[in-house]
Amino acid sequence: MRPSEARRLAALAAFCVASTSTVTSAQSSSAGAALVPEINQIVEADAARLQDIFKDIHQHAELGFRETRTAGIVAAELEALGFEVKTGIGITGVVGVMANGEGPTFAFRTDMDANAVQEATGLPYASTQRVTNLSGVETYVAHMCGHDPHTTWLIGLAKTMPELRGRWSGTLVLIAQPAEEPVKGAKAMRDDGLYETHAVPKPDYFLTFHTAPFSTGMVALTSGRKNTGTDHIAVTFHGSGGHGSSPHHATDPVIMDGMAIVQYQTIVSRMADPTETSVLTVGSVQAGVDNNVIPTEAELKLKLHYTTPELREVMVSGIERISNNIALSYGIEDEAMMPTIFEKGYAPVIFNDAEWMDHIRQVLTEAKAVDETVNERRVVEGVAIDDLQVPGSDDDFLLFEGLEDVKGDYIGVGTAAPEVFAKAHAEGKEFPFFVHEPNYVVDLDAIPWGTRLAAVIALDVLGKPTE
User: Fold this and answer.
1) b/e for 265-278, b at 16 or more Cβ within 10 A?
2) Which residues contact residue 197 at a Cβ distance below 8 angstroms, ignoring those fewer than 6 apart?
3) Do β-strands 170-177 and 105-111 pair in parallel, antiparallel, or remain unpaired?
4) CB–CB of 47/452 below 8 Å?
5) 168 close to 464: Cβ distance less than 8 angstroms
6) Rounded CA gap, 419 and 18, in Å?
7) What does each of the 467 residues of the chain score in pLDDT, given as a tens digit?
8) Which residues contact 251 (CB under 8 A, 6 or more apart)?
9) What's the maximum distance between 2 C-alpha atoms anywhere in the chain?
10) Residue 446: which of 412, 422, 404 has the closest Cα?
11) Rounded to the nearest 10 degrees, what angle do helices 418-426 and 3-15 cross at?
12) What SUPFAM superfamilies does this protein's entry cite (predicted)?
């Protein structure tokens, strides 16, 4: 084990100490902290229902832009609670708006889509769904990234806020976004006129949660950069095809694919600033059908990650140069036969608003909102992992990109059962499982916990000052 990893594990383990304190908010200065007792009461009464909703969504997982059942659940819940509901934004996106007098606009965004993964958790509510995806490939589908608790937290927040309507003022906007996994959903909602055509109020504050495989009760509050940016790019090499026994009569795109796979890595190792994070993954190689036929096309599906817009340009332009030069070196001269490079999806680098994040950290500390000792729940007292940066990406900040004066924050929320996390740590593992793995399990206690957390932050922004 590397020393840096050992130190990180020790720090995480130190956080996992059971709390015996109770939630108190006397003399709280923030509206969110002052309302913790009421929040706890509302969420606790709704916890079993929310857990059932989570299990249902988990069991009926849907891929991006196919989330019709999940979107229907969200829309029905919001309509029943008195929200103005807008559906079909960006194909399957749902937005609920609740205006409650003068004040700021607070947006809470979740994503609804699942992964093309076969679940291996053995849970009684595990997904066994199989579908044909938008590319015509049959695949298993399962929520192995936590979008099912995300959606449930939105529903829980939607239930909590109307019950405290007399305690806050402003506009609450709840966004259930499709297709985060292919990083297409946020762009689809913007292209569909989220703020113009559908008249969704533009946010002053924009908040996103994402599950993380550390203990329930832990939160990652990062000021500044949180996630990398990403691009999904498809590169298709074109050749003439031919008989496998006579490659000299063909121009083989499979060979071009192979050369590109190797040469693309020099973008990271020789073109990118080594002090910045950059990743170039080839996630799919598709070419041909028969053993004895050289195909006419060969496709690579690429996944990029980077920490700055400048680094993105280095990577994207590098892919274009290398691809074209490989084609030229194999005798491709016709412009129409040069590689086709297609941008499939994009998400910007996520930079959290440092001032608001520092305030959130103070509010959650004051509120002890992460302490779930109600009914002796087995959850640790809330702790914050400060300035945790991850190489993953999310397209959520595209939902307000280009808007002025929006404070946006992205928070990692621990959803692994504390005993499961502790066992993994004792075995020398950093995490018990990780997102997109077939054994990713969300602690049921994290369902009410995430709802409480969202409510505290929302009410801190929208809440009326205490006297």
Assistant:
1) eebbeeebeeeebb
2) none
3) parallel
4) no
5) yes
6) 10
7) 333 333 343 444 433 333 222 233 334 568 888 899 999 999 999 999 999 999 999 999 999 999 999 999 999 999 999 999 999 999 999 999 999 999 999 999 999 999 999 999 999 999 999 999 887 889 999 999 999 999 999 999 999 999 999 999 999 999 999 999 999 999 999 999 999 999 999 999 999 999 999 999 889 999 999 999 999 999 999 999 999 999 999 999 999 999 999 999 999 999 999 999 999 999 999 999 999 999 999 999 999 999 999 999 999 999 999 999 999 999 999 999 999 999 999 999 999 999 999 999 999 888 875 444 433 333 444 566 777 888 889 999 999 999 999 999 999 999 999 999 989 989 999 999 999 999 999 999 999 999 999 999 999 999 986 55
8) 239, 240, 241, 330, 331, 332
9) 86
10) 412
11) 150
12) Bacterial exopeptidase dimerisation domain, Zn-dependent exopeptidases
Of 109, 103, 348, give the one whose Cα is nearest residue 206: 109
Residues 101, 107, 111, 112, Cα dihedral to 10°: 0
Tally Cβ neighbours within 10 Å of residue 120: 14
Query: Can you spell out the DSSP letters for 129-180?
Result: EEEE-TTS-EEEEB--SSHHHHHHHHHHHHHHHHHTGGGB-EEEEEEEES-T
Domains (ranges, CATH) in the chain? 3-224+351-462 (3.40.630.10), 229-347 (3.30.70.360)
- Specify the residue for token string 């140069």: 321
Question: Mapping DSSP to helix (H, G, I), strand (E, B) and coil, where does residue 340 land?
Answer: strand
d(C-alpha 301, C-alpha 261), whole Å? 10
Give the separation between CA 311 and CA 280, rounded to whole angstroms: 12
Distance CA 395, CA 346 (A): 7
CA distances (Å), origin 332, targets 237, 318, 319: 10, 19, 17
Residue 384: which H helix or E strand, with range?
Answer: strand 383-386
Q: d(Cα 354, Cα 303) in Å, to the nearest integer?
A: 28
